[in-house]
Amino acid sequence: MKAFIKELLFLTDLGRIIMNLKKMVGIAAAEEVKDGQILGLGTGSTTNYFIEAIGLKVKEEEIKVMGIPTSYDSFLLAKQWNIPVTSLDEHDIDIAVDGADEIDPDLNLIKGGGGAHTLEKIIDYAAAKFIVIADDSKCVDTLGKFPVPLEIIPESRKTVFSAITDMGGIPAIRKAERKVGPVISDNGNFIIDAEFKKIDNPIQLEKDLNSIAGVVENGIFSQMTDKAIIGTSNGIKILK
């Protein structure tokens, strides 16, 4: 029992440390924002701190910015912090800030743990500058330990699974929590996770996955990140 309690306390402390690192990089990214800019607002626990920091700048510094959310979650948080929202139809994006599930040394990413990678990719690719924020646990030598999320048309499940298996991946439908059945994206599609173990060529795999009929978008983000702001126990680390 003592060993269990000790382990539980360790995990609790670790959770606090990671939460503080996420907050640190969220605030650091907010310092990159200038008055009058249009922002891409990513999705996820780390990006939430960025959105909150922008909300404080709007309130306390009275900066004028507008946000383009990548999900209902980021839309609702922006509204909560009184950040005006707009769309790609109306404005170009100056800076997009988003999190990542994995980051390799070339700043290729795996994203989509929150199931919002389709709109994230549209908005992040459209931005003049794309900044990734994460704690250092997300930095890896090679992508692949985290499965690649894919958004797929529900009717294509069988053919998509077959194609991914032929490519050496192990696909699985992402199951919802507190709801029976699969996770449904904001766009009304299935989210599946494809395990590849080790991805030596993320640029090619991103293209190959998107060539499968029925795949709307996959969670590999290659050759698009301008800067990564990484939170470590020794402070902020910048990767370019």
Automatic annotation (TrEMBL):
Cited InterPro entries: NagB/RpiA_transferase-like, Ribose5P_isomerase_typA_subgr, Ribose5P_isomerase_type_A
Q: Which residues form the active site?
A: 120 (proton acceptor)
Enzyme Commission number(s) of this protein:
5.3.1.6
For biological process, the GO terms are: D-ribose metabolic process; pentose-phosphate shunt, non-oxidative branch
Q: Which superkingdom, per the lineage? A: Archaea
Enumerate the catalysed reactions: aldehydo-D-ribose 5-phosphate = D-ribulose 5-phosphate
Q: Record's GO cellular component, any one?
A: cytosol
State its role: Catalyzes the reversible conversion of ribose-5-phosphate to ribulose 5-phosphate.
How this chain assembles, per its entry, is:
Homodimer.
Name the protein family.
Belongs to the ribose 5-phosphate isomerase family.
Q: Which HAMAP family match?
A: Rib_5P_isom_A
Q: What is this protein called?
A: Ribose-5-phosphate isomerase A
Native organism is: Methanobrevibacter filiformis
Tell me the name of the encoding gene.
Answer: rpiA
